[in-house]
Design brief:
Shape: elongated
Protein name: Potassium channel protein
Distance between the termini: 63 Å
Helix content: 40-55%
InterPro entries: K_chnl_dom, NAD(P)-bd_dom_sf, RCK_N, Trk_Ktr_HKT_K-transport
CATH topology of the largest domain: Rossmann fold
Membrane topology: Multi-pass membrane protein
Structural class: alpha/beta
Keywords: Ion channel, Ion transport, Membrane, Transmembrane, Transmembrane helix, Transport
CATH architecture of the largest domain: 3-Layer(aba) Sandwich
Radius of gyration: 32 Å
CATH class of the largest domain: Alpha Beta
Strand order of the largest sheet: 3-2-1-4-5-6
Order of helices and strands: HHHHEHEEHEHEHEHHEHEEE
Subcellular location: Cell membrane
CATH superfamily of the largest domain: NAD(P)-binding Rossmann-like Domain
Number of strands: 10
Number of helices: 11
Strand content: 15-25%
């Protein structure tokens, strides 16, 4: 029986074990002093109070042993209990420092919910995090990257996880089950095709752990967009196509590139949503709907009809049943 109790005791985490040991010694010495000098230490609590103050070497002097035996016990307590309390406080400090170091190294799991998970540290993800913090300052972000040695952001809203995102345990450390959305950026240390294959592998892993979470992925080659959809990506962003378009407009020399820059600046200030058209809008011109949305400080960009996207619909076109409107609204900073 005692062996089992002793074995269980040593299986307890060291800080809790030290705490229980300190409490045991303080109660033991306090109770002993109460029975040795009941006139000075009237209650057991008085004895425990004296033991804590003496063992920590604070020494208020409000309770002082009057007998020789009591003073001998006091010396034993100072030699033994003082060292034990000091060791306990040092262990707490060492544990706090280790936790901070592990946090910076990305070894601490994330336990909160409703957060965004961004995979990959690069200029794109860096700028994305900056924009999220600027526009939605209270949004929590978990950054997952295997190559970094320490947290590159150092923000209370960004939690760094170091690990291989193709492994389940890395996603579990990022608390994928409670996350709101996932953004997987392309790892450009690979060739374009290899980067896309790696992105698709990460998408499969994330989708296997969470069946419904929106997953946004960056794909570099057009050929792999279909495979990314098959892997479970909710939205696919082909950055090379956007970059090529910008290059084309710049090379044509008609200042379309400047317009593209302004559009990108506009997009950064907007939040977008897709809403099903109200029943009382059916048959109405898009011009009427546009005027109505403007009163709500919203901008109609396009419509999704029969799984096709129609941007900037004609003002005389009519709203049809099952139409979904693509709407932009300026991000509120309230």
């Amino acid at each position: 029986m005692w062996y089992q109790v002793w074995r269980t005791y040593f299986q307890i985490p060291i800080l809790l074990r030290l705490f229980l040991t300190v409490i045991f010694f303080m109660i033991a010495f306090g109770s002993l002093m109460h029975f040795i000098e009941p006139d000075t230490f009237i209650t057991i609590f008085d004895g425990i109070w004296w033991a804590m103050i003496t063992g920590s070497t604070v020494g208020y002097g409000d309770l002082v042993p009057a007998t020789t035996l009591g003073r001998v016990i006091t010396m034993v307590l100072i030699l033994g209990g003082g060292g034990l309390l000091t060791f306990y406080m040092v262990s707490i400090s060492r544990g706090a420092i280790k936790w901070e170091q592990d946090y910076q190294k990305g070894e601490i799991s994330y336990y909160k919910d409703n957060h965004l998970i961004i995979v990959g540290w690069n200029e794109r993800s860096k700028r994305l995090i900056e924009m999220i913090q600027e526009k939605m300052s209270d949004t929590s972000i978990v950054l997952v990257d295997e190559s970094l040695r320490s947290d590159p952001v150092n923000s209370k809203y960004v939690h760094f996880i170091k690990g291989d995102p193709s492994r389940d345990e890395t996603w579990q450390k990022a608390n994928i089950s409670q996350a709101k959305k996932i953004m997987i950026t392309a790892d450009q240390s690979y060739s374009e095709k290899e980067a896309d294959i790696h992105t698709i592998l990460l998408t499969i892993t994330a989708r296997g752990l969470h069946k419904t979470i929106p997953i946004f992925v960056e794909i570099l080659t057009k050929d792999q967009q279909v495979n990314a959809e098959r892997a479970g990506a909710t939205e696919i962003i082909c950055t090379n196509i956007s970059t090529s378009t910008l290059f084309f407009h710049e090379l044509t020399g008609h200042r379309h590139g400047d317009a593209f820059k302004y559009i990108m600046s506009f997009l950064a200030e907007q939040e977008f949503s897709i809403k099903q058209a109200h029943e009382n809008w059916l048959g109405s011109d898009f011009l009427v709907i546009t005027d109505h949305l403007k009163k709500e400080e919203e901008l109609l960009l396009g419509v999704i009809r029969d799984n096709e996207m129609l941007m900037n619909p004609l003002s005389t076109d009519k709203v049809q049943k099952k139409d979904h409107l693509i709407i932009a609204r300026k991000i509120s900073h309230d």
